[in-house]
Design a protein that fits this description.
Elements (H helix, E strand, L loop, with lengths): L18 E2 L7 H11 L5 E14 L2 E16 L2 E12 L9 E5 L5 E6 L2 E6 L11 H16 L5 E6 L2 E6 L6 H4 L16 E10 L5 E12 L2 E12 L13 H4 L6
Parallel strand pairs: 1-8
Antiparallel strand pairs: 2-3, 2-12, 3-4, 4-5, 5-6, 6-7, 8-9, 9-10, 10-11, 11-12
Helix pairs in contact: 1-2
């Protein structure tokens, strides 16, 4: 199993490319301008990330879920304050996994739970590396869209209700490289040519905000199969108050918390 996959996430032939436009012919350039002009007017946000990993080896499938909820306040597009809770879940397993609670302060700390007990430790890496915050995510997405604008990637744009849905499913899409500063993703046992990668970005038409980023990586060879799905949702824009982000010490110290 370990030979097939090693993955960490906090959180990869040459032919002609085309752009398939929505009915009103919204282009990739239009989406880029929309995100640049309106998508950065953000002071706070609620964030939910669900990552599901399925690995099949010799007929046995192992499934892992990682769920993160975060409240984030920004100052000049930098994380000013946040609280985040992350659960590692192994369905159909007696091992319920680990639960982490992050709180941004100086020094940054995290509370973590294993075998039913809570502990507190200094944070060994910047809080923004533990999951994709909005602006680091937006920067990575913009780089991908600019490749599509230059006809390096095939892209489809569709309208749905009050959003634009941008879908990129191209052999030249390399999420490992494009998201290296957003997620920590490593796969061993499968070559890039054996992987299929798909990315979808949902952008609000009027507000210009990136509401959802979903990607899927799948592949198989004689060692087994891999399927990774990540869904990252941003919502409740500019409604998170400073008082909403409280120090978790009272809840989690001395073995408290659920």
């Amino acid at each position: 199993m370990k030979k097939l996959l090693t993955i960490l996430c906090c959180l990869w032939v040459t032919f002609s490319t085309t752009t398939v436009l929505a009915d009103n012919e919204v282009s990739v350039t239009d989406i880029i301008h929309l995100l640049e002009e309106k998508g950065t007017n953000i002071q706070s946000v609620n964030n939910e990330v669900i990552v599901e990993i399925n690995v099949e080896h010799k007929g046995v499938t192992e499934k892992n879920l990682k769920v993160t909820h975060a409240k984030i306040i920004y100052d000049n597009q930098q994380v000013a304050k946040l609280a985040a809770e992350r659960s590692f879940i192994k369905p159909n397993s007696a091992d319920t996994g680990m639960k982490l609670v992050y709180y941004s302060e100086t020094p940054e700390t995290y509370f973590w739970k294993d075998t039913g007990n809570w502990h507190v430790s200094p944070l060994e890496q910047p809080i923004t590396k533990l999951y994709p915050d909005y602006f680091s995510h937006l920067s990575a997405v913009m780089n991908i869209l600019k490749k599509a604008e230059a006809n390096e990637l095939e892209v489809k744009i569709k309208e749905k209700d009050d959003t634009y849905q941008v879908v990129i499913e191209d052999k030249k899409l390399d999420l490992f490289a494009d998201f290296k500063d957003v997620y920590e993703i490593n796969v061993s046992g499968l070559s890039k040519s054996e992987l299929t990668q798909r990315l979808q970005i949902v952008v609000h038409k009027q507000e210009g905000r990136m509401e959802e980023v979903t990607f899927e990586i799948s592949g198989e060879n004689n060692l087994g199969k891999l399927k990774l799905q990540s869904n990252n949702v941003y919502k409740d824009w500019n409604t998170v108050l400073d008082s909403d982000i409280v120090h978790p010490d009272d809840e989690y110290k001395d073995g408290a918390g659920n």
